[in-house]
């Protein structure tokens, strides 16, 4: 039996802002379902208890954790995007790196046409690849 694998993004207060940012940034992204913490539950009222969203065919789950943690996101786990063209890659690089951190600047690193690695303003790590076209391999 094949199990479904879904990236799970745990925030402490910014899940809704992050999800709205991703849906606005990616052309084929949408929010599929959202549940909010209510009064008397473990989480802060009106923050995300669970949200299901997608970017392209990839589903994600996100929440605002009711527990405080001594950790956050790390680039050791990142979301890898094969961009369809240079314009898409440049737009994503600009949006995702604004108020974030550039780990590898957008350029030719020798293994693809162009590549960049960024942490967005929420700490989520993204690898943005522009693969060689079939006739360039």
From TrEMBL:
<dbReference type="InterPro" id="IPR028973">
    <property type="entry name" value="PhnB-like"/>
</dbReference>
<dbReference type="Pfam" id="PF06983">
    <property type="entry name" value="3-dmu-9_3-mt"/>
</dbReference>
<dbReference type="InterPro" id="IPR009725">
    <property type="entry name" value="3_dmu_93_MTrfase"/>
</dbReference>
<protein>
    <submittedName>
        <fullName>VOC family protein</fullName>
    </submittedName>
</protein>
<dbReference type="InterPro" id="IPR029068">
    <property type="entry name" value="Glyas_Bleomycin-R_OHBP_Dase"/>
</dbReference>
<feature type="domain" description="PhnB-like">
    <location>
        <begin position="3"/>
        <end position="128"/>
    </location>
</feature>
């Amino acid at each position: 039996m094949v199990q479904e694998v879904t990236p799970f993004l745990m925030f402490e207060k910014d899940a809704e802002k992050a999800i709205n940012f991703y849906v606005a940034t990616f052309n084929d992204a949408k929010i599929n379902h959202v549940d909010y913490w209510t009064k008397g539950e473990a989480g802060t009222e009106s923050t995300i208890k669970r949200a299901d969203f997608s970017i392209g065919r990839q589903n994600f789950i996100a929440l605002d954790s009711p527990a405080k943690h001594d950790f956050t996101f790390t680039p050791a786990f990142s979301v890898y995007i094969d961009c369809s063209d240079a314009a898409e890659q440049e737009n994503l690089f600009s949006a995702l790196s604004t108020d974030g951190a550039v780990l590898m600047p957008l350029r030719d690193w020798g293994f693809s046409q162009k590549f960049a690695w960024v942490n967005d303003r929420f700490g989520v790590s993204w690898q943005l690849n522009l693969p060689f076209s079939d006739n360039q391999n």
